[in-house]
Design a protein that fits this description.
Elements: H1 4-26, H2 36-40, E1 54-57, E2 61-64, E3 67-68, H3 78-87, H4 93-105, H5 111-119, H6 126-136, H7 142-148, H8 157-182, H9 197-205, H10 213-224, H11 233-243, H12 248-259, H13 267-282, H14 288-300, H15 318-330, H16 335-354, H17 365-374, H18 383-404, H19 417-423
Antiparallel strand pairs: 1-2, 2-3
Helix pairs in contact: 3-18, 4-8, 5-6, 5-8, 6-8, 6-12, 7-8, 8-9, 8-18, 9-10, 10-15, 10-18, 11-12, 11-18, 12-18, 13-16, 13-17, 14-16, 15-17, 16-17
Bound molecules: carboxymethyldethia coenzyme *A.
Carboxymethyldethia coenzyme *A binds near residues 304 and 359.
């Protein structure tokens, strides 16, 4: 049975050749200019890095290896998506099985992880717990060990893959354990080697799921959040930290620390808070006028509408649409889900009239919380942890490819305001 490692080993020489030729033939071509505004403005729109795992098209959203997310990928399991991110091809049934076996072999979480997490202050944020859980396992890194033994550059990708498989195998276990420890749900539940990755995570959370719908939703959730090209805060941070040859435990936990910011992954906890505030204020679903007024009050108070707007997208996020479709199929009458649908109907108009957000449409975070809430996962500070388990796939895939292709240390040039005044 072909493993992911075998598959990559067969592809990497060709990829190296391709990049070498691209640089030889087009190395001097200009692909982006940078204005003063962009230099002060978070480098928005500057094309200055490469990411082959996925592309975010402003008008179409997430495209993974050439396949738009709504064109068949929402029915795939997350492990199939990880294979696709890394190799550019969807796996066969056998290949999916071999990846599941790779995870099953590496899923044991050492006892000291639980000891450390239990010793953290009771009010710790679940994201701080998740990132700590990853970092305390860093001493296991094969990458760091092999590097200190003097491994060759061409071999970097192998221990990067090994560390990534270890990380992806334990991540849902640690993440579910964080939930159970942080919210007094009982001891962590072990990984079931007979279940797929998404169903395992759902099961280890300990949420009652007689219909199997929560498992189905988790697979979708983990698939939809897997990657969003290379420039977003978490991917870019992981890329930069990894470029210093810090191992995947360091690089992924650094990326996830970025995901914990309210303008990035933490927005999903804020979104549900926003929806519940509306439900509480109006004792259920508001009228359209009440909702619009609530949005104006939020904006006039100088706050953002969570779950709306995006740095790259200029359309409703197809990942939001996928969640909306799932909700319509499985919980159309849920009062919180109904408010999410109403917000989608009325808030883009308010944001357009407000005139600031370049994209008045929902992003992925606008809908996911209402589904989690519906299935009984009600502790919304936990939601970014779910996002993290999924996004680690994209971060690991990018990192492994970067080590395989010998991408060097990130080091853009900064300039001072004085320099701008004299030269721009
Ligand atoms: N509500 C109110 N104002 C908004 C807004 C929103 N949802 N989205 C953007 N704006 C405002 C910005 O704050 C900015 O205002 P200032 O000029 O006063 O600074 C202005 O519109 C222009 O911003 P933009 O260029 O459209 O958006 P950015 O690329 O700067 O930021 C994002 C993108 C996502 C941070 C922003 O839209 C936002 O804060 N949205 C709400 C939070 C959110 O949903 N984040 C999750 C994003 C998904 C993810 O990365 O995980």
């Amino acid at each position: 049975m072909a493993s992911l490692k075998d598959k990559l080993a067969s592809q990497i020489p060709g990829l190296r050749e391709e990049i070498k030729n691209v640089i030889a033939e087009r190395g001097e071509k200009v692909i982006s200019d940078v204005t003063v505004q962009q230099a002060y403005g978070g480098m928005r729109g500057v094309k200055a890095m490469i990411c082959d795992t996925s592309v975010v098209d402003p008008g179409k959203g997430l495209i993974i290896r050439g396949i738009p997310i709504l064109e068949g990928l929402t029915e795939k399991w997350p492990e199939e998506i990880f294979w696709l991110l890394l190799t550019g091809k969807l796996p066969t049934e056998e290949e999916t099985k071999s990846l599941q076996e790779d995870y099953a072999k590496r899923c044991e979480v050492p006892g000291y992880v639980w000891d450390v997490l239990r010793a953290m202050p009771k009010e710790s944020h679940p994201m701080a717990m998740l990132d700590t859980g990853i970092l305390v396992m860093e001493h296991e890194s094969q990458f760091r060990k092999r590097y200190s033994e003097g491994m060759k550059k061409t071999e970097y990708w192998e221990p990067a893959l090994e560390d990534s498989l270890r990380l992806l195998a334990v991540l849902p276990v640690i993440a579910a354990g964080v939930y159970r420890i942080r919210y007094d749900k009982g001891d962590p539940i072990p990984y079931d080697k007979n279940l797929d990755w998404g169903a395992n995570y759902a099961t280890m959370l300990g949420i009652d799921d007689p219909s199997g719908e929560f498992k189905e939703m988790m697979r979708l959730y983990l698939t939809l959040h897997c990657d969003h090209e290379g420039g977003n805060v978490s991917a870019n941070t992981c890329h930069t930290v990894g470029s210093a040859l810090s191992d995947p435990f360091y690089a992924v936990s650094a990326g996830l620390n970025g995901l914990a910011g309210p303008l990035h992954g933490l927005a999903n906890q804020e979104c549900l808070g926003f929806v519940l505030q509306i439900e509480e204020k109006f004792g259920g679903a508001p009228t359209a006028d009440q909702l619009k007024q609530f949005a104006w009050d939020t904006l006039n108070a100088g706050k953002v509408i969570p779950g709306y707007g995006h740095a790259v997208l200029r359309c409703p996020d197809p990942r939001f649409i996928a969640f909306l479709e799932f909700g319509k199929k499985h919980c159309a009458d849920d009062p919180v889900f109904k408010i999410v649908s109403m917000i989608f109907e009325h808030i883009p108009g308010v944001l357009m009239e407000h005139g600031k957000a370049k994209n008045p449409q929902p992003n992925v975070d606008a809908g996911s919380g209402s589904l989690l809430y519906h299935y009984g996962l009600k502790e919304f500070p936990y939601y970014t942890v779910l996002f993290s388990v999924s996004r680690a796939m994209g971060m690991c895939a990018q990192l492994i490819l970067n080590r395989a292709l010998g991408i060097p240390i990130t080091r853009p040039k900064s300039v001072s305001t004085e320099w701008i005044k004299e030269n721009a």
